[in-house]
Amino acid sequence: MSGTMKAVIKPRPGPGLEMTTWPIPEIGPNDVLVQVKAASICGTDLHIYRWDPWAQGRIRPPLVVGHEFCGIVVERGASVTSPQVGDFVSAESHIVDNTCFYCRTGQGHICANTQIIGVDRDGAFAEYIAIPAQNAWVNPPDMPLEVAVLQENFGNAVHTAFATDLTAKKVLVTGCGPVGVMTIAVAKAAGARSVFATDIYPYRLALAQRMGADVVINARTEDVVRRVYDLTEGEGVDVLLEMSGAPSAIEQGFTLLRPGGEAALLGLTPGPITFDINNAIVFKGAKVYGIVGRELWATWYRMRGLLRSGAVDLSPVVTHKFRLEEYDKALETMASGQSGKVVLYP
């Protein structure tokens, strides 16, 4: 397919994005062309929008942004056998080489040569996107757009929650952004005894409660450590799932983690932080897992099981919808703390 399309791009170094006319991408023999039906906003997109130090060191404009999407396959390369033209797909945003040490030892999610859609190559805030066929995940044709578009981000929640056994455990989730509240739902589906959730925005705490949190705590107005100790008879929690990257939340989380407990960390800090590793980890005998992306493709199959069984309902997570042309307003909404997931529709 040739021609042009609407796309939201990072046109040059500096804050902001721009809507423009962009060539419809060409596909190679192992690629598919997807007509984007919905694309959701991630924290990574906010970093690129603001042009913070991470974006300055990683992004090479001009670039179409966005990496969470779903759509219909409209064209495929000569070597592609699956998916079929007409299939409704979501996508894994990490494009791996399948030849490095990590890919060959079942650790493709940390492939040394990963390219990320919307970061290292053109992304999904557009009418069409070209991706390797191996990155397409075929959905049931009747899956709602608002669920299909969340799956890539939902995978972060599933990967984090399943880093350890949550059965009958007391779990603390720090950070109730979209991936945080999805993690709460997964923890409950996985059999957690009780889930405590912290954030600084009442809107997100209300959403956390709707997604299954047993106790929500406003870290701006309450003493998180004292409250959780009171509720756990001084024991603290068995598992910390850290989704915020906020230094204060990390400190509170590890303070509350009981000796011998386990922590899975997904949130990214603003930069290097001061952290008492001796008392927080070593002397506690704690196990700590760093979480990046999704396990390929084990996490996706777990997602499928949770969604198709009805064990997790993602429908409350999407709280705001915008036309692609309204990307500025959509990004501001996502950054406000007064939203769940924000979705764009080309």
Question: Which structural class do the helices and strands define?
Answer: alpha/beta
Task: Describe the sheet with the most strands.
Answer: 7 strands, mixed
Q: Kindly state the percentage of residues in helix.
A: 25-40%
Total number of distinct structural domains: 2
Cα distance, first to last residue?
18 Å
Order of helices and strands: EEEHHEEEEHEEEHHEHEHEHEHEHEHEHE
Question: What radius of gyration results from the CA coordinates?
Answer: 20 Å
Give the CA-based shape: globular
Detailed description of the structure:
The structure is a single chain. With 346 residues, the chain is an alpha/beta fold. The protein folds into two domains: 4-150 and 317-345, Quinone Oxidoreductase, Chain A, domain 1, CATH 3.90.180; 157-290, Rossmann fold, CATH 3.40.50.720. Helices cover 28% and strands 27% of the residues. It contains twelve helices and 18 strands. It has helices at 43-50, 53-58, 101-104, 145-148, 151-161, 178-189, 202-210, 224-231, 247-256, 277-282, 298-308, 327-335, and strands spanning 4-10, 18-23, 31-40, 63-64, 68-76, 88-91, 94-95, 115-116, 128-132, 136-138, 170-174, 194-199, 215-218, 237-242, 257-265, 287-290, 318-323, 341-345. Strands 3, 5, 6, 9, 10, 17 and 18 form a seven-stranded mixed β-sheet that branches. Strands 13-12-11-14-15-16 form a six-stranded parallel β-sheet, with helices on both faces. A hairpin with a 7-residue loop joins strand 1 (4-10) and strand 2 (18-23). The longest helix has 12 residues, at 178-189. The radius of gyration is 20 Å and the shape is globular. The protein starts with a strand and ends with a strand. The model has no long low-confidence stretch (mean pLDDT 97).
